[in-house]
Design goal:
- There is one protein chain.
- The protein has 740 residues and is an alpha+beta fold.
- It has twelve helices and 43 strands.
- It has an eight-stranded mixed β-sheet with strand order 36-37-39-38-40-41-42-43, with helices on both faces.
- Strand 28 and strand 29 form a beta hairpin.
- The longest helix is centred in the N-terminal third of the chain and has 18 residues, at 2-19.
Length: 740
């Protein structure tokens, strides 16, 4: 009887151990997974560098023995080592007093000359030159690391260097906020404007006409600047805290007003145009002369982003005319931008979503009308790579052209200006990354899927035919470690018709007889699409988290980009939508196919826009999402940067901003929430998170807050990652995490 009881207890312990999740062993695997999978993929990560205007390029082969620098001759179809690794490693070791292995050379910022016998690179913060034929290694001095400007800080247009005329006889400059011209031979100065002042000055960014007879310049009425402030509590160089101040324009703030002016430098004539076509400004930019020195082109982006115009100002009459106009009842996605003024002076290539898909159009500049639509169909032009005006060919990337596959997969194409001759240059299924030669005769194509290792080939840029294979990645050593590829999964969204595409990550010890809580990683908004499409052994956001005993997913719902304009428009004045109805439908479809996914335990996490969206999901869909980890969130769009929020939420600032605010909706909290913020975040104002905290406290809600001292825009770093693991283990697995 005693033995039977002991056997039963032992069996129960064994079963519990078998089915346990969130254990110390799971944490050990999760924390070591990245290191375990590191350097287990070979002949991958091909990054070709074409050498000047030659038909040769170099790249690094990652072999089981180490890194090998190779050079490929596209014309001869040959590949050889770029230099003698042993010789260079020996010289570098001697020069730097550090042991450098020949198979681990990492030459940063490497440049190769046309005859590929001279290398210039950075090593140990020094610039080096290596002449292989002379066996000469020369230290060219310590590299100066440039100081990066703060991204939101506008330049001071009132100051700038003088600008010399094309014929070299005159110099234009700003003095006392006005435009002056000096004759270089005599030094005689002449004022062209007299109405400049500190409150309405002339920009120092002066544009001379090609004939050197006129200058174009913006007159600027500046606006009062907004600043955000934050305290760095624990600086490394002093005991006392530091107060930081950053320029930071928010939705609804006043903006500078710009008006182009043209001055005739040989007379008193000046043209002050009517502002009717560019009055409600978000931005007015560019002053580009035509070859005949008769007109300038500039662009107007309307506040609220429902109009975008290319305008022409006549230097002869001062009249402003519309050359191109984009309008929308929602928003013109000006981030999807391409404009090419052809050298014939008569035509412009323009990118637009006007037919519900992102395409290219050929404009007649003088008539201000479309001559012909160049690309057309239910697919999406992503980027223009090159415009060959002589042959009238455009090289571009696009997605969604191939039926019955993931519509986000990127391929490369060429097409004639008149829309004929469309050729796919990279036809295989996969996410392609092409690097073209300078002469556009060939390209290196690297393609993969999240579950298929990369392949690299050299192709002809005329028809896409393979000239020679380069590399096929070897993941056999990775697979031996227990690596499990993520699954690409598609299901219908909220409308029951449109496919949503995502990925599913499972733990390496996945057991289909277990039940797994689901965690969604979210980032949304029409700035891009966010689900990974290319191969990577380790995904920082999802791989380790899955190892604790979760199914981790990511997908792109409506309101993200690179599908149709209607697909994007779902988010307009409604960022709280975040594609959540599509995400819920997708997860439910996955659960139907895979019953081991537990739909009663779904968590969600994200950072920045994803921080806003994960909290929002918890507040508005508490019956589906049961826990959320939200880092550095822009929780109220009135608190965040102007360009992101007015683009999608509109202008003026009306009730839609309040309706989408996690601060306003904080009282709805019913589920576990962890908020994370870096105390010196200058990307998203940290006050945005703290205002949610304040609202939750006032509503007497229970939640967790993690503030990372000295940290900027962050998911929380290593500390935050551990907190994220513990949070979901407690609230979805319902077990106590192991001790730290």
């Amino acid at each position: 009887m005693k033995k039977a009881i002991l056997w039963t207890i032992g069996a129960l312990i064994s079963i519990n151990a078998l089915y346990a999740q969130g254990t110390a062993e799971d944490y050990e695997r999760a924390f070591t997974l990245n290191q375990k999978w590191k350097n287990k993929v070979f002949y991958s990560d091909v990054r070709p560098q074409w050498i000047n205007n030659t038909n040769q390029f170099w790249y690094v082969r990652v072999t089981p023995e180490g890194r090998v620098y190779v050079i490929v001759d596209a014309a001869k179809k040959t590949r050889k080592e770029l230099f003698n690794r042993q010789k260079l490693a020996k010289q570098l070791s001697s020069a730097t007093q550090n042991k450098i292995e020949a198979n681990n050379l990492n030459l940063q910022q490497l440049r190769v000359n046309a005859t590929h016998d001279t290398l210039r690179f950075v090593q140990n913060d020094h610039k080096w030159m290596y002449l292989e034929k002379k066996d000469l290694l020369k230290d060219e001095g310590k590299i100066e690391k440039p100081t990066a400007n703060y991204w939101a800080e506008a330049g001071d247009e009132s100051k700038g260097e003088p600008v010399v005329s094309p014929d070299g006889t005159k110099t234009a400059f700003i003095k006392n906020q006005n435009v002056y011209v000096k004759e270089n031979a005599s030094g005689k100065e002449k004022a062209l404007s007299f109405d400049g002042s500190p409150g309405e000055f002339y920009s120092a960014y002066i544009q001379w006409s090609p004939d050197s007879k006129k200058v174009a310049v913006m007159k600027v009425r500046p606006a009062e600047k907004r600043y955000i402030y934050f305290v760095e509590s624990s600086p490394e160089d002093q005991l006392q805290p530091k107060l930081h101040k950053r320029e930071y324009t928010k939705p609804g703030d006043a903006l500078p007003f710009r008006c182009p002016r043209i001055f005739n430098v040989n007379g008193d004539e000046a043209h002050v145009p009517s502002i009717d076509l560019f009055n409600s400004q978000f931005e007015v930019r560019g002053l580009e002369w035509d070859a005949a020195s008769k007109n300038i082109l500039f662009e107007y982006n309307e506040r609220g982003h429902q109009a975008l115009r290319v305008l022409e100002l006549s230097a002869e009459t001062g009249k402003v005319s519309t050359i191109i106009e984009e309008t929308s009842k929602t928003f013109v996605n000006y981030n999807r931008y391409f404009r090419k003024d052809l050298t014939n002076g008569n035509e412009i290539i323009w990118m637009s979503e006007r037919d519900n898909w992102n395409h290219l159009y050929l404009y007649d500049r003088h008539a201000g009308k479309v001559k012909n639509q160049i690309t057309k169909g239910e697919w999406y032009v992503r980027d223009v790579i090159h415009v060959d005006e002589q042959k009238q060919i455009i090289y571009f990337s696009a997605n969604g052209m191939v039926p019955n596959e993931d519509p986000y997969l990127l391929r490369y194409y060429r097409i004639n200006f008149d829309g004929s001759g469309l050729i796919c240059l990279t036809p295989e299924e996969g996410m392609h990354q092409a690097t073209f030669s300078t002469d556009m005769r060939s390209l290196v194509d690297v393609y993969s899927l999240v579950n298929k290792a990369p392949v690299a080939v050299l192709r002809s840029a005329s028809d896409g035919k393979v000239i020679m294979p380069l590399e096929t990645a070897d993941i056999s050593e990775l697979v031996k470690t227990g690596w499990r590829a993520p699954e690409v999964f598609s299901a219908k969204g909220r409308d029951g018709k449109t496919d949503m595409w995502g990925v599913i990550f499972r733990p390496t010890n996945f057991d289909p007889t277990k039940k797994y809580p689901i965690i969604e990683y979210i980032y949304a908004g029409p700035g891009s699409q966010y689900t990974p499409k290319s191969f990577s052994a380790y995904n920082w956001s999802m791989s380790g988290l899955a190892e604790l005993g979760f199914i981790v997913v990511q997908l792109d719902g409506m309101g993200t980009s690179f599908r149709s304009k209607a697909f994007e428009d779902v988010c307009y004045k409604n960022l709280k939508d975040a594609g959540l109805p599509d995400r819920i439908a997708w997860i439910k479809a996955a659960v139907t196919k895979y019953p081991y996914m537990d739909v009663s335990r779904v968590g969600i996490f994200g950072a920045s826009a994803g921080g806003q969206e994960s909290t929002n999901a918890l507040l508005l869909y508490p019956d589906f999402y049961k826990a959320a980890y939200s880092s550095c969130g822009c929780h109220d769009n009135r608190m965040d940067k102007i360009w992101w929020n007015e683009q999608w939420m509109g202008y003026p600032i009306e009730k839609q901003y309040e309706e989408c605010s996690n601060v306003v909706n904080a009282h709805l909290l019913k589920r576990p929430l962890m908020l994370v913020v870096g105390e010196v975040d200058d990307n998203v104002d940290p006050a945005s998170t703290m205002q949610v905290v304040n609202a939750l406290i006032k509503a007497k809600k229970d939640f967790e807050l993690v503030v990372i001292p000295g940290s900027n825009h962050t998911m929380g770093g290593d500390y935050g990652e551990h907190k994220r693991y513990d949070f979901f283990v407690r609230n979805l697995l319902n077990v106590s995490p192991p001790k730290w």
